[in-house]
Design brief:
The complex is a heterodimer of chains A (about 400) and B (about 375). Chain A is built from 12 helices and 10 strands. Chain A has about 400 residues and is an alpha+beta fold. In chain A, the strands form 3 sheets. A 4-stranded mixed β-sheet of chain A has the order 1-4-5-8. In chain B, strands 1-4-5-8 form a 4-stranded mixed β-sheet. Classes of the chains: A alpha+beta (about 400), B alpha+beta (about 375).
Chain lengths: ~400, ~375
């Protein structure tokens, strides 16, 4: 339905082939249980250029666009939802350097991510504030030509094994609005004063570590400030908008992977002397799933293509994410149902696709947040009527 | 006018049961989920406390209670944070086969042990190639010279590893018609040829020992056949009304319990500005929608419990209830988790386990799709 060009089709094939050769079901199930990072497939993926495909070639990237990154994410997630999400978020947050950082910062940090040597983690949200990053308690004050960071961040993706973090801190406590006083920093994981605590066990994706980080007088040089002071909130909002389109691509891949497995099952599973794929109710479930996926695909890629053409609308990104996640929840849920008792068994995979879809559903905002963003864009602020 | 009439005896029973669950179950639930097992002693202790098999008549050591006791057990256990101690399955799904279809000798032999928790039961119908299509089971039972030889395998059997007594559906290989050839047999654990397979690794119900069972020329006396030869299908049909009602109870009570926790969370969690989540209109509407569905489920359920207790044939309605309430509970819990955002993905949040556990309910005891085909038939469609 969406026509990809030759290069994009090659990427699809390459990722598919890589996953087919390297993703082992037993290994996925094992890491799902143990929470160990899939280092081997990560290294292989980086070797083949699938990490940072959207970074310029000068920084070891593929020199391609967001669409290509989305294609990689979709294919990885369709092959396996857990490995796919984990690998496609190996550099989560590094886009802040890519889009808003200096050439020195890009040179210092991006190649090691693209080459698979380190992971990036993003530290934006704070304990007790949910998704809200407008009232930061984590501060960065200037001292002797450096910045000293003090505070706590929670839900840091790749928190335990990132090589560096992108951290949003308040640098001007008197800014009005308050968000105009936030700045964005790169903090290397081996800086003194970082206390990293593993987040407790989660529903799924334990192999992609999550942590709370306390910054106890962590000193970073000026060179680690991304862009301009006071612009951090804006940078993060832009990053999140981009990240949400990637989430849409992941959800699409997860949905497709579950769908393919369900399809295989309904063709082969026989009950009442025939493949269950012959029953109309089953066929209509497949039709619903296919429609969900087609709609998610269209939304994801038109948004991704628009992004590459410079159209950067946060509301559209929220819509795409919400729509694709709804599709993923519906499709993975149905896939579990179609596999019957087997759908509930970890061995048959679809249940972890379902759990992984649930994780994406609330990452970078649940639908309540996204609807607020969309409504704000559509309706704008309604001024109080002037009272006589 | 209440649909169900709870008496002081019912209330006293509930208090005793709640105390048992609070002291003996909940503190260990998380560990059992990790261990994928419940200590066998819990069944014995629960039985000796008079909390199992409440419908079994006094002459066999039971309480001789009405179905409301069963509803109370299901409701309280829905808040027990574990599924391995599957009291409702044992008491109100499997044991009733023995109570209703068993010979005097079988009842004397097994019911007291079932009541006391010395005998934990399992029901073995499903096979790798016979799920929804129960009539196509391949496990055979050859009756000869006072013995029955069972051959075949079963899967997805709850209490499969620790169960002491299994009600096994098997067919007479000489009879073509599956509806005429099926019989039910009582197979004791430890019978030569009766082997436990591996425990199955699942999305939820982790403390529950769901397993495969194998019958390799397993020889049992013909006295262990339950009911008459060839009556298996009819007996299953007879008991499915109560089984479906039990599923609906689990779904409604589970959804109610979860909703309470979600509401509690929303009222006690504030956004960054200090405003409780429960003050946001979108959240309020979502919670009201959930509460309404739960209330509809509870009302339907109680009416069916009342009808069931009156001995009415509510096969259609209980099939409707089984599919609708389990779909509802899954909806409600999914919505609840989404409202909770990131906390809705933390395993320390009991609702996360609850969501994983609820997912199987639209599949087991007959998939919701099968419920619809059954109702469709009964509606004359």
């Amino acid at each position: 339905m969406i026509e990809f060009n030759k290069s994009q089709k090659q990427i699809q094939m390459a990722v598919r082939s890589f996953a087919k050769g390297e993703f082992e079901k037993d290994r996925v199930l094992e890491l799902d249980r143990t929470g160990e990072y899939p280092a081997q497939v990560h290294a292989k993926a980086a070797e083949l250029g699938f990490i940072g495909i959207h970074y310029p070639e000068t920084y070891s990237g593929g020199g391609m666009g967001f669409v290509d990154q989305a294609l990689v994410a979709e294919e990885l997630c369709a092959a396996d939802s857990s490995f796919g999400i984990t690998l496609s978020m190996a550099g989560y947050g590094a886009e802040c350097i890519l889009r808003f950082g200096s050439d020195e910062q890009k040179e210092t940090f991006l190649p090691s991510v693209a080459e698979g040597r380190i992971l990036c983690g993003a530290a934006f949200t704070e304990p007790g504030n949910g998704y809200d990053i407008t009232r930061l308690s984590c501060v960065a004050v200037q001292k002797n030509g450096n910045y000293v960071i003090q505070g706590k961040k929670t839900g840091v993706v790749n928190g335990l094994n990132a090589g560096f973090y992108i951290v949003l801190c308040q640098t001007d406590l008197f800014a009005k609005p308050f968000t105009d006083g936030a700045s964005l920093f790169i903090v290397e994981a081996d800086r003194e004063g970082l206390i990293v605590e593993k987040t407790g066990e989660r529903l799924s994706l334990n192999m992609m570590t999550s942590a709370s980080i306390t910054f106890d007088n962590v000193e970073v040089p000026m060179a680690n400030l991304i862009g301009e002071p006071g612009k951090g909130y804006g940078y993060v909002q832009k990053f999140l908008a981009e990240s949400r389109i990637l989430a849409a691509a992941q959800a699409l891949g997860v949905a497709r992977g579950a769908y393919e497995r369900a399809m295989f099952h309904i063709r082969n599973r026989e009950q009442f002397s025939r493949p269950i794929g012959q029953f109309q109710a089953v066929r209509h479930k497949i039709a619903d799933m296919a429609t969900h996926i087609a709609s998610a695909r269209l939304f994801t890629y038109t948004t991704a293509m628009a992004f590459d053409q410079g159209y950067r609308d946060p509301a559209t990104a929220s819509m795409a994410k919400m729509a694709s996640c709804r599709a993923a929840m519906a499709v993975t849920d149905e896939a579990v149902q179609l596999l019957g008792g087997y759908g509930y068994m970890r061995e048959y995979e679809v249940e972890h696709f379902y759990r992984d879809a649930k994780m994406i559903e609330v990452r970078d905002g649940n639908q309540y947040l996204h609807k607020d963003i969309i409504a704000e864009s559509e309706i704008g602020k309604i001024r109080e009527p002037k009272r006589p | 006018m209440d649909i169900l009439n709870y008496t002081d005896e019912h209330r006293a029973f509930r208090q005793r049961l709640r105390k048992f669950i609070e002291t003996r179950v909940i503190p260990h639930a998380r560990q059992w989920e990790k261990d994928h097992a419940v200590p066998r002693d819990l069944w014995r202790d629960m039985g000796r406390a008079g909390l199992l098999c409440t419908q079994v008549p006094r002459e066999y050591g039971g309480l001789g209670g009405d179905f409301i006791y069963s509803a109370i057990v299901c409701e309280e256990m829905a808040a027990s944070m574990q599924t391995g101690l599957a009291a409702t399955l044992h008491s109100d799904v499997v044991v009733p086969y023995i109570s209703e279809y068993g010979s005097e000798d079988q009842k004397k032999r097994y019911l007291p042990g079932c009541v006391r928790g010395d005998i934990v039961t399992a029901i073995a119908m499903t096979e790798p190639d016979a799920g929804s299509d129960l009539a196509s089971i391949r496990t055979t039972a050859v009756e000869q010279d006072g013995y029955v030889v069972l051959s075949g395998s079963k899967t997805f059997i709850s209490n499969g590893i620790h169960g002491d007594l299994a009600v096994v559906a098997a067919r007479n290989p000489d009879i073509r018609d599956p509806y005429m050839g099926m019989s039910l047999y009582l197979v004791e654990g430890g019978t030569p040829g009766f082997e436990r397979g591996r425990q199955l690794d699942k999305m939820g119900w982790n403390s529950q020992d769901t397993a495969e069972l194998f019958f390799n020329n397993c020889r049992i006396p013909v006295e262990n056949r339950l009911g008459d030869k060839g009556m298996g299908f009819l007996m299953l049909m007879g008991k499915l009304q109560q089984e479906r009602l039990c599923c609906a109870m689990g779904a409604v009570y589970g959804a109610e319990h979860s909703l309470k926790q979600v509401m509690d969370y929303c009222q006690n969690t504030t956004d960054a500005s200090g405003k409780p989540l429960s003050k946001f209109q979108a959240i309020q509407f979502a919670l009201v929608e959930m509460a309404t569905e739960v209330k509809i489920g509870r009302t339907f359920l109680e009416k069916l419990i009342a009808d069931h207790m009156e001995g009415l044939d509510v096969k259609i309605e209980t099939s409707m209830a089984k599919y609708w309430t389990t779909d509802m509970a899954n909806r409600v819990m999914g919505k609840g988790l989404e409202i909770m955002g990131e906390y809705g993905t933390c395993e320390e949040n009991p609702l996360v386990q609850g969501w994983r556990d609820m997912r199987v309910t639209s599949i087991f005891a007959g998939t919701n799709e099968i419920m619809k085909t059954i109702v469709s038939k009964f509606m004359g469609l």
